[in-house]
Amino acid sequence: MEIFRFERAERLMTRHGSIGLHATRVAAGEGRLQVTCLTVEPGGIIGTHPATSAQMFLVVTGGGWVAGQDGNRFPISAGQGARWEAGEEHTTGTDTGLTALVLEGPLDLFEPEASSGTAER
């Protein structure tokens, strides 16, 4: 086992007009699969840009909004995610700050499982 931190905010990102965005590369897998931790400061924005591959944006703390190609903003908070296809223009912003894990690569979403009311052991 190895314990590690992924909220290190290693690189300040300013591409595509981003403001208050810090990124930490976490891991890469087979093919083009990679995981990045993003922290967006209060009032920050991830500027509009195309997804380089299929991308999942999983908010782990805080909240804000996400938008796809049409520019319509949708609220998003901890425990929610957004998925964009390769090439899809998208952007994210926050008034209060957020931390998200971004998974990029060939990924398929699982359908939600029906709750049986009992815990798995």
What's a quick, concise take on this entry?
The protein is mostly beta strands and 121 residues long. It has strands spanning 11-13, 19-28, 34-50, 55-67, 73-77, 81-84, 89-93, 98-104.
Classify the oligomer: single chain
Element order: H for helix, E for strand: EEEEEEEE
Average pLDDT level: 90
Task: Report on the biggest sheet.
Answer: 8 strands, antiparallel
CATH superfamily: Jelly Rolls
Structural class: mainly beta
User: Stretches where pLDDT falls below 50 for ≥5 residues?
Assistant: none
CATH C-level class: Mainly Beta
Helix content: under 10%
Descriptors:
single chain, Jelly Rolls, mainly beta, 121 residues, eight-stranded antiparallel beta sheet
Describe the structure.
- The protein is mainly β and 121 residues long.
- The chain has one domain: Jelly Rolls.
- 0% of the residues lie in helices and 53% in strands.
- It is built from no helices and 8 strands.
- Strands 1, 2, 3, 4, 5, 6, 7 and 8 form an 8-stranded antiparallel sheet that branches.
- A hairpin with a 5-residue loop joins strand 2 and strand 3.
- The protein is globular and about 40 Å long.
- The protein starts with 10 loop residues before the first strand and ends in a 17-residue tail after the last strand.
- The mean pLDDT is 90.
Topology of helices and strands:
Elements: E1 11-13, E2 19-28, E3 34-50, E4 55-67, E5 73-77, E6 81-84, E7 89-93, E8 98-104
Antiparallel strand pairs: 1-2, 2-3, 3-7, 3-8, 4-5, 4-6, 4-7, 4-8
